[in-house]
Amino acid sequence: MEGLHSLLAGGHGKDRGAEAADLRGCERDLTLEHPRCVYQFLKKHFSRYTPEMVERYCGVPKELFLKLAETYCSASGPEKTGVICYAVGWTQHSRGVQTIRAAAILQLLLGNIGRPGGGILALRGHASIQGSTDIPTLYDILPGYLLMPTHESHARTLSDYIERYRAPTGWWANYDKYIVSLLKAYYGDAATANNDYGFQWLPRVTGDHSHQGYWLDMMDGKMEGLFVMGQNPAVAGPNARLERRALAKLKWLVVRDMVELETASFWYNSPEVNRGELRPEEIATEVFLLPAAGHAEKDGCFTNTQRLLQWHEKAVEPPGEARSETWFMYHLGRRLKEKARTDPRPRNAGLNALTWNYATEGQHQEPKVEEVLQEINGYTLPDRKLASGFTELQADGSTACGCWIYSGVFPQPGQNKANGRSPHGWYGHGWGFAWPADRRILYNRASARPDGTPWSERKKLIWWDEQKQEWTGFDVPDFTRKKPPSYEPPQNAAGDEALAGDKPFVMHQDGLGWIWVPVGLKDGPLPAHYEPLESPIRILFIGNRPTLQQTPKFVRTTRMLTPQMRASPMF
User: Fold this and answer.
1) pTM of the predicted model, to two decimals?
2) Which of 8, 115, 211, 318 could form a disulfide with 322 if both were Cys (CB 3.0 to 4.6 A apart)?
């Protein structure tokens, strides 16, 4: 694919943000022979990973490895595709980034991105793990993969933040529209141009607030309380013994689940208590165990592996005092806002500004979940007309949207597309809603040749209709519908207009698939094999914990060639 040839200078890896870079003017070598093109870097970097080395370090016999490689590589080309499916375990390894990046590179090399039967599927262990990433429970991103601000200089003002992360070319040029619309959804009328739309009210990332990071903080006594919902860290964490001991350092712990989990009972029934390492009478943690409703006992929707939002309706009322997550969070937020209303300190300004006016229904004042989905979908202001999609979002405060990639799921009253139950066609359109814009296969412009014709009749997905002068096919085009394959951007074009008609990767600044990722990854622009942090085995050519000095130069290079850098050799 053409993405192999690009000389890159950084930007948004995957669908998550990173520093922006201007890739206009980067040189390319379509012969793949230039010694400083990405393909040659790739060959040099991976040359040491021979079948013999795989057998020595990974235990896979050479003959089996070669058979697997030949079998999988044969699933590529105009008539064939292959998919990589991985479970959450890949993600949770200490070297998970390396493994997943390697899979992405392999799929790009084989031409298995954007085509039927291709791609990479991260199989989820729960119904809405994808949803909890899109509208995140993660500490470092905001809804729609916008980045959380930090205490660094680039996040002191909204304009500084946008300048850092808004790309000059490609679809991330709309970054300002999505962050301003999100702030308007958060803070409503209180968010104005005069106060940066409430940007200063957003919390800042001050360090490692990831799962492992905050458990270490808890062990050091730096945390007072913890909410646990949808997980059981006392037995499912990467160092469960440490996590059970850390829970004993809290002042309070709230656990919401359908049964008493080990996380709720750690203080009187755990290996540490049984061994005498922890004594219940000495643990000051006050534990609140709250009953939660099951999925059949509440309305709402899941977002699954294929980015598909699927609505489910309440079948029965939850028993006793069991309540939904929506009920719990809404009423907790309502109480916190009431408490903040009587406290005029500046620290409460954001909480007081937060919009929290959802209608409720029923005996227990359950929030109307469709109203939440409508806020996520987005609307214009001040008339609150629902948006038909993310292309309507603006950066001037005239639109609000809780998650731009979900925009279009609820385009008008009574039309909840997540509740669609009339599938048609090969890809199930009409059943649920796949973000963005109900596209079932991302980057599907890659399913057609540069001239817009399908790679094959058997595997065709979308193509350019010369008569209608638009992209058509079996899926919603993940491309500007009226942009012809022959389109060439004018000089100094910006945003999507800067991408030519044969560049399918619209989220990238050059429209190409990236094998080299020089900005946004802390591990290096190309993946390398490391042993896990806990491994007793030492990899001789790298070492267990590579330092900057140990890492090969072609791994630790952080930027590709620009005209200014071309005079300085990289090796």
Assistant:
1) 0.89
2) 318
